[in-house]
Amino acid sequence: MQALLRRWRAKVAALRFSFGLTGRLVAAFAGVGALVLAANFLVLQGVRVERTTEITRLAPTPPVAVAKPIEAAPIISESPAVARERRVVISDPVVVALNRFARSAQERIRSRDNGTEADYKQAGADLEQSSRAFMAQAAAISGKPLPKLGSGLKAYEGLGQELVALADSRHAMLGEYATLFEGLYARVNGSVKSAWKVFGRVVARQSLLQLSTDLDELRRNSAALESADSAQSPEIAPYLKSEQAVIDNLASNEKGFRSSQGDQWYDAMRGDLSQLVSRREALMQLNAQLHARARDFAEQASSVAALVPAKVEGVVITQAPPVAHRKAGNAASNSSAPASAPAPAVPDAEAQPAPVVATHSVTTQAPQDHRKRLVIAWLSAAVLILLMSIAIGTVQSIVGPVRRLRDATMRLAKGDGTVRVQRGGIRELDTLAVAFNAMADELASARAATRDYQQSLEAKVAERTQQLQELAERDPLTGLPNRRELFTLLNAAIARARDEGYLVGVFFLDIDNFKYLNDSMGHAFGDRVLISLARRLQEATQSFGFAARLGGDEFTVVHERAACVEDIRLAGLSVVQAFQRPLSVDGRDLIVSVSVGASIHPDHERDADALLRAADAALFRAKALGRSQLSVFTPELLEDAASKFTTEQGLRRAIERGEFELMYQPEVNADSLEVALVEALIRWRMPDGTLVAPGEFLAIAEESGLIMEISDWVLRTAVETAAYWHHGEWPQARVAINVSPRQLLDGRFVESLIELLEQHRLPTRCIEIELTESVLQTGTATIEALKRLRAHGVAIALDDFGTGYSSLASVEQLPLSRIKLDRSLIAGIDTNSRSAAMARAIVGMCQGLGLEITAEGVERAEQFALLLGHPGMYLQGYLLSRPVSRDDVLPALVNVAQRAQELLLQPQIPRSPRVVELSAPTRLSLPEAG
Ligand code: C2E
Ligand code: CA
Ligand code: CA
């Protein structure tokens, strides 16, 4: 059921969508037109009914139809003896007589007194008379005798008679019934009355009393006998029920009745009751017949009414002179017109020839009704035309704009941005057109914007692609070829050199101490250093090859065509030398040295990757040699690289297991010849018991970052040991601790050192920090930290002075308390006058600045002798003492002093005049010039 409903709905929806606006409007107006026509039709029907009603109300009317001439004057024709007269006869008297006959018949059926009887008879006579007169006149005017009307009327009157006869029979039957019932009732009532009376109250059988009650009930319901025409009629049901009750009572109490009332009484009751039942049945049959006849009678009345034309008109031609005709006409109109009289239009039938009927027309409607109909028809037509014009106008004002909008939308959807809709049509559609045009405008501008955006996007993409391509090949910071591009170029160079028989040199570069520079000066500054460095490299290499950046501070240089190994070595040296001029970064001169490792194709390796690895190994070697070094690959270097890896792994293990030890080397006051302080020097005790010197592992520890953990350990152990001595047998103990620049970069270095000293209750004067010049490159923050240290009373020594590019600037800028002259500087003071002069100058400078001096690497008595007698001079070297273990320090204090005394007493040490030169009179006097 639901599926059916759904299908039906879908069909309706499909119909709705397949119907265009025109179709809908046409359908709607066709509907309206049909409604108007139907209404028109119904109105006409209404007019006819109305007319009948009017005539019914026209009473009293003359019983005879009167023929009235419409025109009083005769129509003069071609012959003076012939007259034309338009005549008309109306049927109103007949209709009135019909109605009256019907009414009087109804009355006669209801009651049978003399009045109704007479009235009924009179109505029949009147009907006959008026109809006969009408038919005669109509026949005279139209020449048609209306035979159907005559026979219809006869049948109608016959039906009336039958109906009346039936009513009479029913009346008689009702009388018989009443008589019978009363007899029965009297018998029962008599029996009740003749029953016993006790104290004035009737004491009778219950069944007899019930019978009496049932008969009362039957009487009350007997009114239905006048109308009920079958046992099924609802109105007879109560009667039948009480009738059955009487029958049942009589049957069920037969024995009682027979004994109390006697057999005769009972049989008489039974006989009367069965007659009553048969009378009742006969009455119902009669009622049924009466009803059927009454229906026939009513039907016949309406068919006779339909046979009666409203009027009959025509033209009558007479031969009589016009005057006589008029007189006759007047006489006729005034006469009482007997039913058998000839047509009133013909006054003298014997004297005049019979009228000739020229034309005739019959209409069932009154003329004013016809006019009404015409008016209604014209009005309907006008309404329809109006509706159609409104429909067409509406369709045109809707369909046109809608089609334009539809076409425009389709074009717009296809991408035609220029389309605009012509305005017009109904207001809503015009507004829609304006909105559409606005939308199209916006769409067009949006499209244009999108196009522009797309173009700019494409340009950007092209630019980005270019940039990406460059990025893929170039290092974004320096613009040098990147690792990828290096491999491409190097492989190409190798291929060319192989074909042409040349050598290819690969150089691996490392900027000395770049890490410190970067960490201390900031990465932005570091980047600018790298850019400047890259430019310098490009300049230095353009004559023989190219430079590339691998990342961080790792650069490579390729010599693309070298004739011999020497060419490659010279090229490497030229690169190293290129950095001996300072770089200009942010307007300041910066000294940056590079170490270079080189490998050669095909001598060392044959592919790019292996050549780079070989150059890296050579670089490690170069760095081990010191700053600004070039090292060319040898196969052993690869072993070094491997051992470097092993060392790193070993160091991690050493940190975990605590394999480090500290040795302490005394520094002797040249004046008092007493040990003033000891320098803490790290050793790595291998599991097999051998000791490894710091030179063999510190560089690797620095490189791998392990130095931080190692340095921490050194600091804690040295402070701990100093505290042990200070609070024990050597209260004046002072320990010098080597500090890596990396440690100073840690912002908390000073504070944690002070905390450590407080923790061990060690005065700050018991500690001295040793730094190399490279600390200057770590920036101002570290210098500030050193100043704080000095303020706390911690002494600061500048280590290894005289190596590298020892500058006076470092002496001036750092808050130093001591300068340690490097072993290389001391090595020649007793053999080389230049060394002696340099030492003298530096000693003079330090004394001038109030700095203490330690001469490192004093190995010979001659050196010892030359360094004596200078205030603030301290001596450190194997001559006096090698570094000793912690437990050997206290005995060493005595032994070293004794050794110094012994040395002083050695007679073979000549006091050279240079010693005199070297010694200055006071610590505050300026050094000698020259
Ligand atoms: P340095 O600070 O210049 O230490 C002095 C070095 O010279 C020591 O070598 C010492 O044993 C050696 N030496 C002393 N007198 C003589 C001599 O008369 N002749 C010769 N040939 N050598 C002498 P060591 O102990 O091998 O230390 C080497 C370097 O390792 C040190 O040089 C120092 O820079 C570094 N170092 C040592 N211990 C530590 C440490 O605990 N921390 C840090 N950061 N560096 C340390
Ligand atoms: Ca040192
Ligand atoms: Ca040193």
Oligomer: single chain
Taking strands numbered 1, 2, ... along the chain, how are they ordered across the largest sheet? Answer: 15-16-18-19-20-21-22-23
**Which residues sit in consecutive blocks of at least 5 with pLDDT less than 50?**
47-79, 322-364, 911-930
Quick check: average pLDDT? Answer: 83
Biggest sheet features: 8 strands, mixed, barrel
Small-molecule components bound: ligand C2E, calcium ion
Q: What is the distance, rounded to the nearest whole angstrom, between the alpha carbons of the first and last residues?
A: 127 Å
Using only C-alpha atoms, the radius of gyration works out to 76 Å
Helical element count? 29
Q: Per DSSP, what share of the residues sits in E-state strands of 2 or more residues?
A: 5-15%
Class by helix and strand content? Answer: alpha/beta
Global outline: elongated
Total E-strand runs: 24
User: Helix amount, in percent?
Assistant: 55-70%
Structure explained in plain terms:
The protein is of the alpha/beta class and 930 residues long. Helices cover 60% and strands 14% of the residues. It has 29 helices and 24 strands. The strands form 5 sheets. An 8-stranded mixed beta barrel has the order 15-16-18-19-20-21-22-23, surrounded by 4 helices. Ligand C2E binds next to strand 16 and strand 20. One calcium ion (CA) is lined by residues 799-800, 820, 822, 856.
